[in-house]
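Async update (no meeting this week)

Hi team, since we skipped the sync, here's where things stand on the single-chain job. The sequence we agreed to prioritize is pasted below, unchanged from the tracker. I ran it this morning and attached the output directly underneath so nobody has to dig for it. Comments welcome in thread, and please keep replies under the output.
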Amino acid sequence: MEGRLNILRSFGVSLAFMLMVTMLSCTEQKSHTAAAVRDRDSASMMVSYGVNTLISDSGVIKYRIVTERWDVNTIKNPPRWTFEKGVFMEQFDETFHIAGYIQADSAWYYDQQKLWELRGRVCIRNANGLIFNSEELWWDGIKHEFYSYQFSRVVTPERTLEGTYFRSDEQMMHYEVSNSVGSFQSEDIDGQDNAPDNSQPVQPKDASKPNAGQAPADTAFVAPVRPAATRHKATQKSTYQK
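Output:
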């Protein structure tokens, strides 16, 4: 009889211990949830891959955009389109012929400002054969102009220009480059260096026949020789129009 009481007593103690452990585990249970996303503007509203689409302006098709990835984010300030994998754009004229192209390693388009930011191996070519290269270019769709504050290179059939500031209209017909260096025909500069010197020194005149304003007889007169032309880097703003 006494043995049975001991067994019941032990069973009761064990049951009470298990109940206490169960209650403690329920009160200390933690929920396994992910942390809240703080940057609400980091998520794009739309992500497209392998894009080849046409863009219209005022109801007229003006551009074709080809890109590997196109992100559209309307929450960031300012809202923007992002082309981090590069972008290639063709521009069409009124007759839907290709008037030129633009390409860059990455680009951002701020749709509210109608402003393009192009970076990394930016290249533009228009129908007249002008080629523009730079590491940065801004395209203002409201003012209809391009501009860059980085080193830029402009190559046309007639000239090659390089400078640290560039501004042009959208057609690249009227542009300006400041702090520029230009390439010219070598004959324009070196021709004077190779010209023969035909000047001869003038012998001193007889001192017995002085004239008004005449230098002393012991002074030799030498015909002036035009100095050779020297190549200089342009430091002032230069405007070139084709």
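Quick observations from my side:
Residues 198-242 have pLDDT under 50 and may be disordered.
The chain is about 15% helix and 40% strand.
Reply here if anything looks off.
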